[in-house]
Amino acid sequence: MSMLVNYDEILKLENRFRANLINSLSGFKSANLIGTKSNNGLENLAIFNSVHHIGANPALIGFIQRPDSVERHTFENIIETKYFTINHINVSNFEQAHQTAARYKKNENEFEHCNINAEYVNDFYAPFAKQCEIKIALELADVIDIKLNNTKLVIGKIKFINYPNNIQHEDGSLDLNKASTVAISGLDTYYSTNKLAKLSYAKPHIKLNKIE
Amino acid sequence: MSMLVNYDEILKLENRFRANLINSLSGFKSANLIGTKSNNGLENLAIFNSVHHIGANPALIGFIQRPDSVERHTFENIIETKYFTINHINVSNFEQAHQTAARYKKNENEFEHCNINAEYVNDFYAPFAKQCEIKIALELADVIDIKLNNTKLVIGKIKFINYPNNIQHEDGSLDLNKASTVAISGLDTYYSTNKLAKLSYAKPHIKLNKIE
């Protein structure tokens, strides 16, 4: 049986039910911890499921900032200092990572409360999550208002990348499966992954190959 | 051993190698087909790995439009007609879906060339991909310029949702695993998923529960 839920029915759904449904609809989401530090030295770590690719050249990554979320400590620190880190959540630390979503006070350090170690690399101002395999240092590049729902698209320029050398393919891509990176659906469900195939570049009227 | 690749080194990478590396860095991506139809009736179907959640109330989904991609047929049709569909790619059709990335001419119909059936639901103008389980009808709500790299964030408002009734949890969320929805890493690698856990709402100083 097939469900068809229309615009008016979506509007009438209970808030939390609607949030859960609509958050499922874009498909699987990335699972990242964003690390920041305020000007007066308070570290912050927060989970985001909205981190996404913006462009490769220049190398840009973005995330969606909601107006009323706990994540605002992250946003405040980024605006104040310009620097943040993105760290891939993996199968060994997704529960600790989920716990960073709790509404800790600004002077409570999620690294300590959630059992993740802060790590400083190359004198970069913002802290990394030591237990993550893939770590990215970013500098704020732009904040774009999304007026439709009072959110913001926050875009960072990649300053450096830190990852284990045995997870990179010859073509440059990183093997997220080897890094045990997880995916999220909705707001609270975590998944490991099985590689189905790496496919060749698609051309009209030519059969695809499985590269791996 | 750990790799550290900095800003200047990223700039010097060969273009395709850099694209593959940087496209891995945001984590797993959603895998969706966007269906459109031009004013003169030409159907188009194209794979996107940049579809992401913008907000639940109002219910909004966005994707990133590149200036020079084949996906511009999709964008042209959306600007022209205002309507598009988002369809979850699954383990049974990810190869056909990948093939839609080939640079077909505007008068070549990807539905036909890639063996995916166009389906019309509820008199909605844009076609759905019949072989997908989760299907969303959207109306263009905004196009936001990202000046940093000349891309656009295209945002649609959800008009209706169509999905099998046995994949919805009591809390409203859809079980993407039951729908066989796949995830993408980089530009060309497809994954099925294993549920690790659905976790309880995080609160400070309270231990998380696994709901499932």
Strand content of chain A: 35-45%
Oligomer: homodimer
How far apart lie the N and C ends of chain A?
36 Å
Q: If interface size is counted as residues with C-beta under 8 Å from the partner's C-beta, which chains form the largest one?
A: A-B, 120 and 119 residues
Indicate the percent of residues in helices of chain A: 10-25%
Give the low-confidence spans of chain A: none
Instruction: Give the radius of gyration of chain A.
Output: 19 Å
Mean pLDDT of chain A, rounded to whole units? 96
Helices of chain A, by number, come to 5
Given the C-alpha coordinates, what overall shape of chain A results?
Answer: globular
Largest sheet report of chain A: 7 strands, antiparallel
What is the string of SSEs of chain A from the N terminus onward?
Answer: EHHEEEEEHEHHEEEEEE
* Strand arrangement in the largest pleated sheet of chain A: 4-3-7-10-11-6-5
Structural class estimated from helices and strands of chain A:
alpha+beta
- The number of strands of chain A is 13
Briefly, what is this?
The structure is a homodimer of 212-residue chains. By secondary structure, chain A is an alpha+beta fold.
Features of the shown structure:
globular, alpha+beta, three-stranded antiparallel beta sheet, seven-stranded antiparallel beta sheet, 212 residues, 5 helices, homodimer, 17% helix
Describe, in plain words, how this protein is organized in 3D:
The structure is a homodimer of 212-residue chains. The first copy, chain A, contains five helices and 13 strands. Chain A is globular and about 60 Å long. Chain A has 212 residues and is of the alpha+beta class. In chain A, the strands form three sheets. In chain A, strands 4-3-7-10-11-6-5 form a seven-stranded antiparallel β-sheet. The longest helix of chain A has 10 residues, at 15-24. Chain A has helices spanning 7-12, 15-24, 72-81, 94-99, 110-113, and strands at 2-6, 29-30, 32-37, 43-48, 52-56, 59-65, 83-88, 118-119, 128-129, 135-146, 151-164, 183-185, 189-198. The model of chain A has no long low-confidence stretch (mean pLDDT 96). At the A-B interface, strand 1, helix 2, strand 2, strand 5 and strand 6 of A face strand 1, helix 2, strand 2, strand 5 and strand 6 of B.
